Amino acid sequence: TAKSYIELRHPQSQQAILIDYRDIRLGEKMYDFERSGYPIAVVFGANEQAKRQVLVYSRVQDKKQTWPLVGLTAVINNMHEQDQQSLYSKSLMRLKSRISVCENFEQIRAAIEQGHFVLCNWNMKTDVNFEAKLKDELSATIRCIPDKTSLVRELITEQVGCEVVLIARNF
Q1: 85, 92, 103, 165: which is deepest, by most CB within 10 A?
Q2: CA atoms of 166 and 99, how far apart (whole Å)
Q3: Partners of 122 in beta bridges
């Protein structure tokens, strides 16, 4: 059977609206919504039409609210902004909780064995065997030299003559 969807995209943004015209139960539509990855669902069924309102569901906040049709665009934009801020905050907290700042090889070993990423200062000129030691002893490598404006840079102070590096274990 053909799907009864219409997808509308805003010409100047990444936002899209998926309208589901299928003649199936609301529960089935909500199940498909959960799987689709769309962050916000707007339900406008017979009950909502009679009351001139909609049910707005945020997948990120796991919250349902009833809103009048008037001003709905502002409500959805606000909810979307709140969802994005919430996702960003959770992601940043998770990133920071999984990064260890280390000053010596034993701290690096302990952090890598816990499954953390490691930030440390590395003097490429004086510690030429550092990369080989990481690889041989810890199965880890330097993944990148974070940009000076990177959020992870706020966790560590760069020492003179060194580069701040991000280290992780190979998978």
Answers
A1: 165
A2: 9
A3: 163
In total, the chain counts a number of residues equal to: 171
Whether residue 134 has pLDDT greater than 90: yes
Kindly state the DSSP code that residue 2 receives in the 8-state scheme: -
Helix (H, G, I), strand (E, B) or coil at 137: helix
Which residues are CB-contacts of 63 (< 8 A; sequence separation ≥ 6)?
Answer: 57
| Predicted local confidence at residue 1, as pLDDT | 45
Q: How many CB atoms lie within 10 A of CB 11?
A: 4
- pLDDT, tens only, 77-100: 889 899 999 999 999 899 889 999
Question: What's the CA gap between 32 and 28, in Å, rounded?
Answer: 6
Q: What is the pLDDT of residue 3?
A: 66
Distance CA 52, CA 102 (A): 59
The sign of the torsion formed by the CA atoms of 44, 33, 11, 21 equals negative
